[in-house]
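We store sequence with structure; for instance:
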Amino acid sequence: MTTSTAFRRIAIFGAGALGLYIGGRLAQAGQQVTLVVRPGSTLALPLLIEEQGRIETCATLAVGSSDRGEAQDLVVIAVKAHQLPAAWPEIRRWIGPETRLLFIQNGLPWWYFLGEGGPHDGRTLLASDPDGRLAAEVDLQRSIACIVHKSAERRDRQHVVAVNTPGDRFIIGQPQGGQDAALAKLAELMRGAGLPVEISPDLRASVWEKLYGNVALNPLSAITGCDLATMLAKPETRRLIESSIEEAIAVARACGIQTATRAAERLRRADQVAARGSVRTSMLQDRLAGRRLEVGPIIGAVVELARLQGVATPHLDTLYACASAISERIDEPTGAAIPITHEQSTRKTA
């Protein structure tokens, strides 16, 4: 397996399922990878990655404290999108003059209107960047965004399970368009680590393609406590999901995204993922773990754009209100949340 030498020192912010999976794969490909954690926190190592029935051990990962930053060649930012503004001051400590940033988040990104070229060019997307800190402080010229079509779950402190589904891929691109040598080198690096990657010439359209599913499946799973298979098998919840996706597609078109995707097509992708077993969305995983939900960037931002464009979104409005109410009742310092039993969240349907 070949590796790229463009990014010799790599730091990963966000030790969730995807952050650990990507960090583990890069480390296995021979890269020098540091998992960055909060001061006083630890990670259970070695990391175990389970995929396609095989469990591999990643023994070369290092752990660093976020308050002891060292300039890196690449900083992979895999914290949840709603946590990014608060995490940014710590991330900055790891950025040197030549550091590239790889943003891996769900939902509509904080940079959505920056350099967009439309009537709202430069507008702050409040659901993703409430105080405008990211728009003001992040250098887009050194930033690369990544849209992930890959399901993974952290089963315990050191065990990540990745689900393989046809169409899995990592879509990368520069928020302001174009392509430079760093983007090509990053694609080479990821392919060398076994991460299927595509470079997108239209990153905003790619963001929406992923979001069509997340905007409905994530909040509904957190509200109901159901995995993908359960939600998709019930006619009532499937109709709600389909109607919500149709509303998101209408918002995207109002924003100038010429998508050919239909709700039924996006549901087929979800069916493929659900068929792989009991798959829980990231938002359901967060609720079960007593963490605040990523409702702002994933669904609040779509509702924000709907109001801006004058598009009615009654189903999304309801999902947003319910998921927000649940998130507000989660007490993160104690990890206490409205309880859902494990059996509820993993029950399969025939």
In short: The chain has twelve helices and twelve strands. Residues 206-346 form a domain with the N-(1-d-carboxylethyl)-l-norvaline Dehydrogenase; domain 2 fold (CATH 1.10.1040.10). The chain has two domains: 9-201, 206-346.
